[in-house]
Amino acid sequence: MTAENNLTMTETSQSAVSKIYSKKAIWGFSILFAPIFGGVLLRQNLIDDNRRKEANIILLASIVFSMLTIFIVNSLETKTSSLTYLLNMGWGAILSEYFFKKYFPKDN
Q1: Has this prediction a pTM greater than 0.70?
Q2: For every one of its 108 residues, what pLDDT tens digit does the chain have, with 9 covering 90 and above?
Q3: Quick one: CA dihedral 74, 94, 90, 93, positive or negative?
Q4: Are the C-beta atoms of 46 and 59 separated by less than 8 Å?
Q5: How far apart are CA 81 and CA 85, in angstroms?
């Protein structure tokens, strides 16, 4: 009976732990695609953690980051993809290092 209770408690505690996207996944999606994709992953993490207000703020920030990238790259005479990747790296670092650590300080 005790072994059965321990098994049930272990299964319950494992199902209670929510799976979240890692900092590396958020940063990688931000670099390869656009900051909005990293923002959507971070937003999903926050929604799973019942933080809807913060989730919407993150989504708005990632949209602004993506629009800033488009504006900066299009305002230059010579359009290079390396500048886009550098900007995406910066925005992705803000999303993964600042915002992720702010809302999930114990998770890596």
Answers
A1: yes
A2: 555 555 544 444 444 567 889 999 999 999 999 999 999 999 999 999 999 999 999 999 999 999 999 999 999 988 788 999 999 999 999 999 999 999 998 876
A3: negative
A4: no
A5: 6
Please calculate the CA angle 97-98-101 and round it to the nearest 5 degrees.
75
Alpha carbon dihedral 50, 62, 93, 16, in 10-degree steps, equals: 20
The amino acid present at 61, given as its one-letter code, is A
Helix (H, G, I), strand (E, B) or coil at 50: coil
In angstroms, the CA 45 to CA 19 distance is: 8
